[in-house]
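Per your request, structure below.
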């Protein structure tokens, strides 16, 4: 099974999560790539059987570079007739959507729109989306935002516990997909 972790990161939170996912996949003996997106990123999603894709939440949405990638690939796949009516599942194609968020105002509710957006993209491609992960991350530009939100003090997050949780979630995904890994 060929896997990839595709991510963007502005302050380092999402990169921490992506790197931990990458290490956990390597420990699971998968052939895995790690790709940080930019405005020129080129990738064929269909080259991969298992995709983890994540971004920090910016006003309920992914970063500009992630939006550029996803919208560009939707157009490419639509134009090349890879997108099929009713978006049937493609056997052996799986995805996990993840994000990091600070949530000083409404918590996880600010993160859910991003993973749903990524999920819709993968479902259009015919991937079975196994899960959506919302990982708490600190704000890097406004320290006050780290301590006065609904989630309490989020300074230093994602922390070691958050990263261990991510690693355990990857192990759970691999266990779930074990029938396809052989």
């Amino acid at each position: 099974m060929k896997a990839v972790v595709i991510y963007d990161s502005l302050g380092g939170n999402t990169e921490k999560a992506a790197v931990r996912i990458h290490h956990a996949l390597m420990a699971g003996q998968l052939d895995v790539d790690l790709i940080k997106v930019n405005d020129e990123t080129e990738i064929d999603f269909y080259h991969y059987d298992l995709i983890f894709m994540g971004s920090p939440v910016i006003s309920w949405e992914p970063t500009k570079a992630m939006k550029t990638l996803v919208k560009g690939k939707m157009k490419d796949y639509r134009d090349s007739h890879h997108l099929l009516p009713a978006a049937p599942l493609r056997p052996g194609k799986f995805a996990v959507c993840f994000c990091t968020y600070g949530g000083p105002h409404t918590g996880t509710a600010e993160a859910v729109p991003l993973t749903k957006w990524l999920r819709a993209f993968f479902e259009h491609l015919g991937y079975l989306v196994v899960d959506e992960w919302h990982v708490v991350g600190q704000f890097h530009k406004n320290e006050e935002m780290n301590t006065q939100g609904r989630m309490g003090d989020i300074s230093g997050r994602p922390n070691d516990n958050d990263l261990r949780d991510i690693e355990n979630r990857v192990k759970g995904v691999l266990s779930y997909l074990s029938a396809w890994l052989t």
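The first strand starts at residue 2 and ends at 7.

Regards,
D.
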